[in-house]
Write a structure and sequence with these properties.
alpha/beta, 6 strands, 4-stranded mixed β-sheet, 83 residues, two-stranded antiparallel ribbon, single chain
Length: 83
């Protein structure tokens, strides 16, 4: 089965933070599924981009998971209107 996993934050084993999304996707890969995770390219702890690359997004493979980091505005701190 092909699985599309959409999430705002996708932390991998080496990243600080909650990696429950990563472990779920890795479990699905171990059961033979093709998993693609689509997530934001923003490191929310630093309010900066995780990976440099084209604005349309960056693609990485992590533990058999096709992870697509899409653009989102890293300047999310501040007032509601600024976000």
């Amino acid at each position: 089965m092909r699985v599309l996993y959409l999430t705002q934050v996708f932390e991998t084993e080496g990243d600080p933070g909650s990696d429950r999304h990563f472990f779920l996707c890795r479990y699905l890969v171990s059961k033979g599924h093709d998993v693609t995770a689509v997530t934001s390219n923003v490191d929310y702890k630093r309010a900066a981009r995780k990976y440099s690359g084209p604005r349309r997004g960056v693609r990485r493979e992590v533990a058999g998971i096709d992870v697509r980091y899409v653009y989102s505005n890293p300047n999310f701190r501040g007032s509601f209107s600024r976000r």
